[in-house]
Design goal:
The structure holds two protein chains of two kinds.
Chain A lengths: L1 H20 L1 H18 L9 H26 L7 H18 L4 H25 L4 H20 L7 E3 L5 E3 L4 H6 L2 E2 L4 E2 H19 L1 H11 L1 H6 L4 H27 L10 H12 L10 H20 L4 H21 L2
Antiparallel strand pairs in A: 1-2, 3-4
Chain B lengths: L1 H18 L21 E7 L5 H14 L5 E7 L4 H14 L3 E5 L3 H13 L4 E4 L10 E5 L1 H15 L3 E8 L5 H14 L3 E9 L4 H14 L5 E4 L2 H13 L7 E6 L5 H6 L5 E4 L4 H12 L7 E4 L2 E4 L8 E2 L2
Parallel strand pairs in B: 1-2, 1-3, 3-4, 4-5, 5-11, 6-7, 6-8, 8-9, 9-10
Antiparallel strand pairs in B: 10-12, 12-13
Helix pairs in contact in B: 2-10, 3-4, 5-6, 7-8
The chains are: A mainly alpha, B alpha/beta.
Chain lengths: 339, 321
Amino acid sequence: MTDDRDTAAMGFAGRVFRWLGSPTGRACLALALVLLVGFVFHADGAFYKAGTHRDALRQTSVYGILAAGMTLVIVTGGIDLAVGSVLALVSVCFATLTIHWGWSAWAAVPLALLIGALCGGASGLAVASWRVQPFIATLAMMALARGLAKYASGGMKVSTAVQEVDGAYRYVAVPAVFRAIDTRILGDNVPVVTAIFAVCFGLAWLALARHRWGRQLYAIGGNEEAARLSGLPVVGAKFAAYVASGLFAAVAGICQAAQEQQGDPEAGAGYELLAIAMVVVGGTSLMGGRGGLGLTLIGILTIGYLEKILSINAVPEAGRLMLTGVIILAAVLTQKRGR
Amino acid sequence: MKRMVCLAGLVAGWMVAGCGKPVEQAAPATPAAPRAAKATYTIGMSQCNLGEPWRVQMNADIKAAAEPHPELKVVFKDAQNDTLRQRAHVEEFVSAGVDLIIISPKEAQPLTEPVAKAYQSGIPVIVLDRAVLGDQYTCFIAADNRKIGKAAGEWIKQALGGKGKVVELKGLMTSTPGQDRHAGFLEGIAGSGIEVVFEADMKWLEPDARKEMESALARFDAIDLVYAHNDPGAHGAYLAAKAAGRDSSIRFVGIDALPQEGVAYVAQGILAASFQYPTGGQEAIATALQILKGEPVPKQIVLGSRLFTKASVAAGGEDLP
């Protein structure tokens, strides 16, 4: 009662102030601050060019796909450290299938997705059924998938230079599917990888915010024991979250291979940490049960734009790392004070 | 309690081992005394990491060079970028009594002593690519990054007619190859009208190179050439320029010239030039054979580089002076 009257009395400014205190408001504030830095340090007007923003979105798409899957896992109170390695494994396999073996995209994409789902499924099995701590289970998968990627590629990048039995190299064309993914659509305005990110993100959002499974994930993250006692399919729902994260990592791996025109067994090292940072900067709690994909989107844009602004200003590496660290810490600290 | 005792024992053992003897063991003048000819020789090869294609290539080169010699048996070990693991490799090779050690060390200081100990125990040691300190090894084989950077600078100066706008995509600038390829390049273009309009650290990584190049393209409407410290970096820059529709007005130059990377890119018309950074694998085996036969070898071998351009790639490149 009094609450309503207060809100009415506060007026517009008060409501804005209150909104800024909410998780969404705080996340938006961080993004606005980063964008403000861009407006001030615009690098001879480069920040005002449409191409810069198009590129910023393209560059952050692979991380964004990982972060979308990561959100599903983190909401359950878990974590998936394996996404970077799964990305590398899938990109190596996808490049081998399409470049070296000449498979069509219709066969290679489903198989690549299956590989990602299997890796996620293995983590999910360990976490949900065998009750291994998510950090440990996915740490193991992180090592295993990286090893598989190196084994499948022989430690070399899988590129359009194919080695014959006699040691000579034969050069093959870049597969059509690579070109199709690494191009722009809608009047040359939207990179295909950004569109793929948007679709992945939309699916994850639908699942988490609109589907029963999403509710279950929140319930598990909030209080797993209570969720179990209320008869929720805890094991199945958790397992599915890790499978989804593996699938998203596979999509990211396909995008990575297409953009690099090769499968690199070293690709994606450290991407898992960036994806986690995006989720956390958005305001989703690592303890689980709180947050959502809307927040993750703001986190993705915050970190993506920060990288881009530092890059167009040619800030040296040392400064970039320090600034990124400060921004992540600052963003998370403001989130914490909101509770 | 039991655990405490164990721990104390370990610590004591470590202290005895660590502090027991001083390093100076009155180095013998010629530890590699002429040895009796054997039917088979075992060579221990310790690679600092196999995460980089260039190092995978080095191992492949060593293997290929050793294959025609049935008397050679090469044991490969990968230290996975861990200095202490590599130190253990050297110690394992010594206790296994190999006939010769080839090591491509991760870093100089921590591996100097293990290498010196192996050398003093009478096992010849060939140090490949990265140096150790002092002179307690048999032979050091490496290419000169600064020289290659300078050659790239000079080639770029000539290709651009002495003036133009260049983007430099640097390798990890905390690593000596990155520093040397940068310093050599500046030396090579010194006194010309070439302007480095944008430089960024892409940490040897192709995705990073692409990102940095996109930023350079957004900032500058006129870019004549991209000099990247490795071929994947140049390739990433090319992909960025291609996505912006500007790949035809920019030339790309890289370093390393691995057969499946730089050389392939030159052959496909993506890079204008790639400068080889030789692995020295073949030279290491040739030197090893000389040592095992008791022939004298030089203390240091500086490897030559080769230049691959559209004109010379089919002929296997051309020697750099």
